[in-house]
Amino acid sequence: MSQPTPADLATRVRDGDLRFHELEDHADADVATAARRLLVAEATDADLDPLGEYAFDADAVHGSNIENTLGGVQVPVGVAGPVTVDGGDRSAERYLPLATTEGALVASINRGCSAIEAGGGATARVTKSGMTRAPVFRVAGVAEAEALVAWVRDNEPALAEAAESTTSHGELLDVTPYVVGNNVFLRFRYDTKDAMGMNMATIATREACDAVEAETDASLVALSGNLCSDKKPAAINAVEGRGRSVVADATIPRAVVEDRLRTTPEAVAEINTRKNLVGSAKAGALGFNAHVANAVAAMFLATGQDEAQVVEGANAITTAETTADGDLYVSVSLASLEVGTVGGGTKLPTQQASLEILGVAGGGDPPGSNADALAESIAVCALAGELNLLAALGSRHLSSAHAELGR
Questions:
Q1: Who's near 276: CB < 8 A, 6+ residues apart?
Q2: In what pathway does it function (predicted)?
Q3: Any domain includes 236
Q4: Which three-class secondary structure string do you get for 233-251?
Q5: Where do runs of H (alpha helix) occur along 129-249?
Q6: Does residue 399 lie in a domain region?
Q7: Model confidence pTM above 0.90
Q8: Peptide bond preceding 76 in cis form (omega within 30 of 0)
Q9: Are 124 and 270 in the same domain?
């Protein structure tokens, strides 16, 4: 039987012979995607031809990355750098791929990279790693809650065995109980190697919850009790971390600050204190930084990360001070950067290309090292962005740069 055309499939949907979401069952994904564009364009009177220009295999992404596919959206990708990153597993000169539609962003980060490189590069380290999932259980009262907590502490090996039976890569690191009245939250934390690991942690935790219910009087209410905390601003992630906690720093010689950034170490340090620390505290912010979300979001889009997790990824603190020698020390600490180099959107061809620019595509050797290196690169990118914005404020060039590049 010959392959139906997009017009054939669209006609069948209009006639009620075929459901919109069943198009892939009757044709390959490219044809089904084209049929869906025809139907939506007809219903909305929109020109959807630009969405039909995409570089991925529609069969590969349908179901695993997206449903009811219309096509693809193109976001310009720029590059900042090179900047030397002294990382925990490897040191290298890296170019930083950034996907954004915000004019001046790549130029801003590139200028920061230039100043960092002139000072000898940046250092970055992952200080803690672990993806979390925190189910909530119902118990009869406080006494039963205390009994459940005691059972969990005595049976972590059994919970690890249950959880790890679902994955060949994940490893349960610990389980932390939290009690609120007759609610018990168990915050499971996993080493997920080079995967971001949210799906891995969820499936593994479901198996562990079965063991809890089989051996105690607790009843699982929800596999996620929001103490994880995924894709929401949360102090627990700022304190305990989630995904990878990563820190980057650099010392910029006074001459570089004055010649390249047109300001002084003292001005940058004062602006950081009054803006990023005092101003953020007064605002009740969780992150104490200038615009870390810009760097995180642009690198997330370029490398195929879950863009909603920019919420946690931008949970960062920037510090700046003048050294005893009169130079500028700057750092940025990202508490909960959730990234991976395998799975999810990382397997799409354009995102793979960006990971290859960074030298971190696929699984690392040892496992987890590629995702660590990606986290370090994002932290250095954020550091460069913070340095440049603080300097632009110090030299009062912020508005002129946006007027020139951002309009």
A1: 288, 289, 290, 317, 318, 390
A2: Metabolic intermediate biosynthesis; (R)-mevalonate biosynthesis; (R)-mevalonate from acetyl-CoA: step 3/3
A3: no
A4: CCHHHHHHCCEEEEEEEEE
A5: 142-154, 156-164, 198-215, 235-240
A6: yes
A7: yes
A8: no
A9: yes
* Structure-derived torsion over alpha carbons of residues 221, 226, 230, 236, reported in degrees to the nearest 10: -140
Active site residues: 102, 306, 402
194, 162, 179: which is closest to 227 by C-alpha?
Answer: 179
Tokens of 253: 């010689």
- φ, ψ at 84 (rounded to 5°): -80, 125
Q: What single letter denotes the amino acid at residue 384? A: A
Specify whether the CB–CB gap between 246 and 379 falls below 8 A: yes
Same domain? For 250 and 393 the reply is: yes
Residue for token pair 């004055």: 258
The answer to whether 32 touches 5, Cβ cutoff 8 Å, is no
Domain containing 398: what range? 77-129+244-406
Cα–Cα distance for residue pair 229/223, rounded to 1 Å:
12
Pairing mode, strands 171-180 and 183-191: antiparallel
Please say whether the beta carbons of 182 and 140 come within 8 A.
yes
In a domain, 237, yes or no: no
Full DSSP string of 261-323: SSS-HHHHHHHIIIIIIIIHHHHT-S-BSSSHHHHHHHHHHHHT--GGGHHHHT-EEEEEEE-
- Asked if 217 and 341 sit in the same domain, the reply is no
